[in-house]
C-alpha cells in the first residue's frame, strides 16, 4: 500500500494505492488523482519506508472510478496479490489499509456486511470539483474507512486484495466538517478491477 498525494493550486488531497508491478505501476481510484489530470497537478507517492517518488497518470476509467499511475525511477517494489472477489461471502473477515487523514498505513478490520450493494459516488475529487456520478455494485464492510482510504486495498484473511476501497456513507459533521466512518464502507470488487487492468495499464483514458 502507498499513500497518494495530489497537489494543485487549490491545495492538497490524500488517498491510497495498491502496487501492481515492481517498476511502480499503482492502482487507485480515479477520484483520487482526477485533479492532476492534464498536467493540472502533481502526484507524489509515499512508500511504507517513507521514501517518495513523483508519479504520472497512465490510464483512467471515470465510469468505474479506477486509475493506474506510474511512480518514476523506482524498481523492486513489493506487489499486491489480487484475490477472487467472487469467493467473498457475507460475514468474511476483512482488513482495510490506507491513509485516513494522511495517517499512512493505518490498518482496520471488520467483516463483509453485504455484497452487490449499489453505490453512487462522484468520480471527481469531491473536495475541489463535483465530477460525474458513478454507480457500481460494491462490497460493503464495517471496517473503518475515512477520507484518505480511497484507492487502498480491502484484504481477505489470506492477505489478498478483494476490493479497492472507494466510498463511505457518513452524515455530515454537525460542525460543518467532513464526516467520518460510521461502519458503512464500500469497495470495488477486485474481479471488476481485473477486467479493466489491461486497458488502464495500456494508457486508456475515459
Description:
This protein has 206 residues and is mostly beta strands. The chain folds into two domains: 2-79, Beta Barrel (Thrombin, subunit H); 85-195, Thrombin, subunit H (Beta Barrel), CATH 2.40.10.10. It is 8% helix and 43% strand. The chain has a six-stranded antiparallel beta barrel with strand order 1-2-3-6-5-4. The model is unreliable at 125-130 and 173-177 (pLDDT under 50).
Contiguous uncertain segments of 5+ residues: 125-130, 173-177
Domains, number: 2
CATH homologous superfamily placement of the largest domain? Trypsin-like serine proteases
Provide the residue-averaged pLDDT.
89
Q: What order do the SSEs take from the amino end to the carboxyl end, as H and E?
A: EEEHEEEEEEEEEH
CATH class of the largest domain: Mainly Beta
- In the CATH hierarchy, the architecture of the largest domain is Beta Barrel
Quantity of strands, as a count: 12
User: What's the story with the biggest beta sheet?
Assistant: 6 strands, antiparallel, barrel
Helix content: under 10%
Kindly name the structural category.
mainly beta
What gross morphology would you assign?
Answer: globular
Can you count the helices?
2
In angstroms, what separates the terminal alpha carbons? 25 Å
List its salient traits:
206 residues; mainly beta; Thrombin, subunit H; 2 domains; 6-stranded antiparallel beta barrel; 6-stranded antiparallel barrel; 2 helices
What is shown here, in short?
The chain has helices at residues 30-33, 190-201; strands spanning 2-8, 11-19, 25-28, 42-46, 52-61, 66-71, 93-98, 106-122, 133-141, 153-155, 161-168, 185-189. The chain is mainly β. It has two domains: 2-79, Beta Barrel (Thrombin, subunit H); 85-195, Thrombin, subunit H (Beta Barrel).
